[in-house]
Amino acid sequence: MSKRSRKICSLHQEARILGKQNPVIDAQVFARTASLFAQKREALAPETLETLASDIVRRLARTIKQDPGSPVTLIAGASVAAFCDILVKDDPVAALQFIDERRVEGLTRQDLYLGYIAQAAERLGQRWDEDLLSFTEVAVATGQLYALMRALRDETAGISLGLNARRRAFFATVPGEDHGIGITIAADLFRNAGWQIDLQIGLEHEDLMAHVEFAAPRVIGLSLSTEQRLGELIRLVTAMRIAAPLAIIGVAPGAGIDRSKLTNLVDTDLLFGDVPSALSELERLIRIPR
Q1: N or C terminus of the chain with fewer C-beta within 10 Å?
Q2: How far is Cα 245 from Cα 151, in angstroms, rounded to an integer?
Q3: Are 205 and 235 in contact (CB under 8 A)?
Q4: Which runs of E-coded beta strand occur in 70-126?
């Protein structure tokens, strides 16, 4: 077994232990997301990974500015700095244990998100700008921050929408895609099945994200026709996870795209096949509390 495989096994084992103890942290989601990000670091080109890391830092740090009035327990700067020191080491178990210990001390999800994750993102960005961290350290740290963000359970997740309200989806092509025929046909078939579909074709990354932040969709379907746009897909899904953490995100890959590569690199809930199977799977998923 390779060193990375042993580390992933250890992470999943630690996740199972902590997951039984902590109602706020979904340790299994953390383990899966951290594993996915480790594979991204190995597979993506340096410039793609740098853009991804920069996006995560910027979007997580912006959370503080978006919600400055939220009541959050005051976190000492030294504690945030200590958290950053843990994050830059390639030890996701230590990062998970740090947050788990803060939760045991009585901090809420909001405290953990705004007090630690968002402030750590801001501080890591500052250290990066000042050349106090290498790119490798930033990539490791942002991957773990993203995994922790994904693992924090939303206290409102148990509030269930009616099924009709949940049968609303946002469909879009990945930035740079030239082909929108397939997703247009899929949108029409979904509408025929009783879904309300918001279809956007040809939007660039920031325009798509502005749309998601405004509409807060619960179901997102993305079309990828060529593997050449895999980097754009990974960046888009990562940003959508931060902006719409409760959303179900599916990807419809074009013919000839390696589906196993998408499963191993993209933080998605499902890969769409034909429309009937996609409808069936989404009907199942929208009944599960997020």
Answers
A1: N
A2: 10
A3: yes
A4: none
Answer for the pair 171, 197: CB distance below 8 angstroms, yes or no: yes
* Local confidence band at 159 (pLDDT 50, 70, 90 cut-offs): very low
**DSSP SS3 for 246:** coil
Q: Answer yes or no: pTM beyond 0.85.
A: yes
Q: Using CA atoms, how far apart are residues 130 and 99, in angstroms rounded to an integer?
A: 26
In single-letter form, the type of residue at position 257 comes to I
Q: Residues 118, 75: contact at Cβ < 8 Å?
A: no
Show Cβ contacts of residue 279 under 8 Å, excluding neighbours closer than 6 positions.
190, 193
Q: Name every residue whose Cβ is closer than 8 Å to that of residue 154 and which is 6 or more positions away in sequence.
A: 109, 245, 246, 290
What pLDDT is attached to residue 178?
74
Terminal CA-to-CA distance of the chain, rounded, Å? 34
Cβ(100)–Cβ(18) below 8 Å:
yes
For residues 162 and 154, which has the higher predicted lDDT (pLDDT)?
Answer: 154
Nearest to 195, CA basis, from 207, 186, 203 = 186
Comparing C-alpha atoms, which of 120, 127, 109, 95 is closest to residue 18?
Answer: 95
